[in-house]
Amino acid sequence: MNRPEVIKSCNHQISESAEGDLTIHLEGGIGISNAAHMTRVLYQVLEDKPQTSVTVDLNKVNYLDDFGVLVLVELKMIVLGEKAEFCLQNISNEAGKALSMYNFDLLGKRDKPYKRTERQGLLIRLGEATVRQAADLKYMISFLGSICLSILYTCLNPRSLRRDDTYMCMQKTGVDALPIVGLISFLMGLIMAFMSAVQLQQFGANIYVASLVSLAMTRELGPIMTAIIVAGRSGSAFAAEIGTMKISEEIDALFTMGFSPTRFLVVPKVIASVIVVPLLTLFSDLFAIIGGLIVGVFTLDLTANAYISQTIKTLALFDVFLGLFKSGVFALLIAWIGCLRGFQVKGGAASVGKATTSAVVSGIFLIVLFNSIFSVILRYWE
Amino acid sequence: MGRQAIIEVRDLVAKYAEETIFDGISFDVFQGEIFVILGGSGCGKSTLLKHLIGLIPPAAGRISVAGCDICRSEEKAFRDMLKKIGVLYQGAALLGSMTLADNVALPIKEYTDLPQVSVERLVKMKLGLMNLEGYEDHLPSQISGGMKKRAGLARAMALNPEILFFDEPSAGLDPVTAAELDNLIIHLNSTFGTTMVIVTHELESIFAVAHRVIMLDKNTRGIIAEGDPKYLRDHSENRFVRQFFNRLPGLANEAEGLEKR
Ligand SMILES: Nc1ncnc2c1ncn2[C@@H]1O[C@H](COP(=O)(O)OP(=O)(O)OP(=O)(O)O)[C@@H](O)[C@H]1O
Ligand SMILES: [Mg+2]
Description:
The complex is a heterodimer. By secondary structure, chain A is of the alpha/beta class. Chain A contains 12 helices and 4 strands. Chain A has a 4-stranded mixed beta sheet. The radius of gyration of chain A is 36 Å and the shape is elongated. Chain B starts with a strand and ends with a helix. Chain B folds into 2 domains: 1-84 and 161-261, P-loop containing nucleotide triphosphate hydrolases (Rossmann fold, 3-Layer(aba) Sandwich), CATH 3.40.50.300; 92-160, no CATH class. Chain B is α/β, with parallel strands linked by helices. The structure holds adenosine-5'-triphosphate and magnesium ion.
């Protein structure tokens, strides 16, 4: 019964011949529990005595596993490193099995420590990063193209759309996000009304709080806030879902079954988002106006009627539609980048995490970028 | 050799929600033996294994592993028990963010105070034993399924545990590698006296390695056969057991039905 717990200890005795030949007699067992200790002890033995050859006698060794073999290898490496001779003698049965299993004679011979990924020079890394980015960009564009084609295909063959998935996605992206979008927009309206009231009150222009809140929300903040919330909630979810499918080979399975992964997974998400995010934006506008209204009525002595009619007077239909159009574009961007990051997943679970983060970050970046582009265009158009 | 039980299972009842998988099974695994758990697909072999290593607490009954009653023991005793076992999961379960070498080195660094160089050498030895030299710095996602299995085994053996649990070790391996794995199992068993608990379907490997088998059954939710595989093949009373060992067609349910008739 040669189990590790049987090893209580390993003793050693040393005999030395006149020529500096050292013999270490080991007795007992070497296993996981005492390997580290034995390594240190034997180091010490060798340090004290310069020698020309070292022989280890294993006659009384009754247990030796790979940790024990390791101790012997370490010993061998030191001895050979000092240009001395090393050999084992009287190998007992128990020790012999483990030694032959691990091919003791070869161990440590052609040993180079396994290579760690080295850090390369700055220039090389810069170049590699650039190439990677370019490839990334290329993939982004080709992915966009494949989405466009798939959507076109779906428009021509509406029956090919996976309806249940689309409805499900609409629910997750839209209905489930309504409470948080509503709450945040309501608070935004409240805060905007408060902040602007402080200034406008000085001129007795209280009523313009209504104009400010409604115009700012419908044209700019409503679409942006909604899009950012959706990017955080759903863009990340798209990336995680597709990324997980990618690493568990589900995407490959879809492909071999003859489905186009884009048509199967991406189109429902894109269509659902493009329908649902503008609706969310409408709700967001509405809740913000209600927030402003409450501040107006309770702290600015406006009547609800006056506030509402001022709001209606300010808002042109164009403003509302502009907001909706923008949020439609944002929805497209969120779904696109979310799915793209999902498809870019390679390797293991950590990579899914990276993809989700990246989906949110790039999503928000794209939202802000496109919003700026819209502002510039409108500036010259109107 | 004294036949000392290292794993004792008494009246184990296992349930997933309302579904009962085992209804009171008892068996022993003796020290130093190669013990194989058999059964048709979905009869609960992986479930039994998860109970034995303490991942799922039993609905009723008692399990003791390496002297530790895993349902009632204290935290510390349980952790000590965990150090004495190694598990190879059905899907290898390597940590995806680490290289193979780091996967194997993880428990070694945690539980021993060997210097870094020695740990690296040991890891190389262990991976070498699995024919994985040269793959030390690969990530699990960069190697094949069979290689993952072998790397998983190297990690399971990292601390030379007293008991090794295998969930379908040879699934996904080519015949040569599978046979090598069988040899390795026998070798480890005879060299270090490691107790092996193996879940497998591979008849050849069962006959090659098993000292004793138990066979689980989905319908009776219990053990329908226990003993030496070669003996069971030729002499079992149970029709399904004979079918299983002789690779005859016919589903488990069908066999049951015939017997009831
Ligand atoms: N997490 C779970 N929740 C509910 N039921 C489960 C769960 N895991 C397994 N089962 C059920 O328990 C039964 C046994 O499953 P188990 O995975 O143990 O089978 P197995 O014998 O290992 O099969 P295989 O040989 O295919 O691996 C199956 O019928 C399965 O439906
Ligand atoms: Mg299983």
